[in-house]
Design goal:
Blueprint: E1 8-13, E2 15-16, E3 27-28, H1 30-40, E4 44-48, H2 55-68, E5 73-78, H3 88-97, E6 102-106, H4 114-123, E7 127-130, H5 138-144, E8 150-152, H6 162-174, E9 178-181, H7 188-198, E10 203-204, H8 214-222, H9 228-244, H10 254-264
Parallel strand pairs: 1-4, 4-5, 5-6, 6-7, 7-8, 8-9, 9-10
Antiparallel strand pairs: 2-3
Helix pairs in contact: 6-7
Length: 291
C-alpha cells in the first residue's frame, strides 16, 4: 500500500525512441528526471515510453528501467491503437507480467479503439489517453465503457487549446470514470475551474517529464492553496486509488480472446501469458509494485 500523503507523478516518459525527429521521439532520460523529482519530494512516478515504431520493444526498455530503480517507478504499457490492432491484449498481458499497471496511448498516432478499451476493462487498468485536443471523443468513450477509468492528460490539450480545456471540464463533471492530469497546463485558471466544478478527486498531478521539470509542475499544485486533504488527493491519492484494482489475470471476453488468438498465436487464454515467446526479461528484471 502507498503511504498516505505520498507524492506520485502520474505522467513521465522513459527510454529511447527510434525515429529521432524531435526530443519526444529520440530520448527520455530518466536519471535527470529522478534527480529533479527527488529534490521536489516526488516519491513515485508512472513511466511509459516515448514515441516508438515498436511498442513491444519500447515497453521492454521501460521494464528494464523500472528494474534499475526498485519501488520507485510504475509502468504503463504504451500501445498504438491502429498499428497494434488485434494484439493489444497480448502486449498488455506481457507488460502485466513485468508489473505494469496501466495503458498509455497517444492520439497523435491513433485515438482509442474499442479493442484498447476492452483490454483496459479486462485488466481493470486505467487508460491514459492523450486525445490531442479532440475532447469530443471522450463523449464517445466514457459512456461506452463506464467501467474503464480514462485519464485524459493536459486537461485535454497539450497545445493550450482553451476549447478542449472547457469541454473536458464539463466531461469531468458528467462522467464518473473520466479524470485528467495537470501536466503542461499553462492556463492556471482552468485547473482552478476543474477542481471547483469536478472536485479534487478528478484531478491528478503529472509533469510530462523528463522534458518538463517535475518541480515546476508540482509547484502549480502547491499554488492552488487547497486544503491538505484535497491537495493530497491530487498529489497521489487519486492515482493510487485508480491503480489498486488492477488484475493480474484479465477477464477476457470471447471476442477479445479469439482476436488475440488469431493475431498472437498459440496461447491467449486469460490464465496464460499470450504471445509467449520473448515474454521474459533478463534475470532480475521482472518486478511488481503492489499499491
Amino acid at each position: 500500500m502507498i503511504p498516505s500523503g505520498m507524492i506520485i507523478d502520474c505522467h513521465c516518459h522513459a527510454g529511447k525512441g527510434d525515429r529521432m525527429t524531435a526530443p519526444w521521439t529520440t530520448d527520455a532520460p530518466i536519471e535527470p528526471y529522478l534527480r529533479r523529482a527527488r529534490r521536489a519530494g516526488i516519491e513515485k512516478t508512472v513511466v511509459f515510453a516515448p514515441f516508438h515504431s515498436n511498442y513491444d520493444e519500447a515497453n521492454r526498455q521501460v521494464a528494464r528501467i523500472i528494474a534499475r530503480f526498485p519501488g520507485r517507478l510504475i509502468g504503463f504499457a504504451f500501445v498504438h491503437a491502429r498499428r497494434d490492432a488485434g494484439r493489444i491484449l497480448c502486449m498488455v498481458q506481457r507488460a502485466r507480467k513485468w508489473g505494469f499497471r496501466g495503458i498509455k496511448l497517444h492520439g497523435f498516432e491513433a485515438l482509442p479503439t474499442r479493442e484498447v478499451c476492452e483490454v483496459a476493462r479486462a485488466f481493470r487498468m486505467p487508460l491514459l489517453a492523450d486525445v490531442v485536443g479532440r475532447a469530443e471523443v471522450v463523449d464517445m468513450l466514457a459512456p461506452q465503457f463506464p467501467d474503464v477509468n480514462f485519464i485524459i492528460p493536459h486537461l485535454g490539450s497539450f497545445a493550450d487549446d482553451w476549447r478542449a480545456h472547457q469541454l473536458l471540464i464539463d466531461q469531468l463533471v458528467r462522467y464518473p470514470n473520466v479524470y485528467t492530469d495537470t501536466s503542461a497546463v499553462r492556463r492556471f485558471d482552468y485547473i482552478v475551474e476543474a477542481i471547483r466544478r469536478a472536485g479534487a478527486k478528478k484531478v491528478l498531478f503529472g509533469s510530462d517529464g523528463p522534458w518538463l521539470h517535475p518541480g515546476l509542475e508540482l509547484h502549480k499544485i502547491r499554488l492552488l492553496g487547497l486544503p491538505p486533504q484535497q491537495e493530497a488527493l491530487i498529489l497521489g491519492g487519486n492515482i493510487a486509488r485508480l491503480l489498486r484494482g488492477v488484475r493480474s489475470v484479465p477477464e477476457v471476453s470471447a471476442n477479445l480472446r479469439s482476436a488475440a488468438f488469431a493475431k498472437c498465436g498459440r496461447r491467449s487464454q486469460p490464465d496464460q501469458p499470450a504471445f509467449e515467446e520473448g515474454n521474459s526479461l533478463p534475470p532480475g528484471t521482472q518486478v511488481e509494485h503492489e499499491l
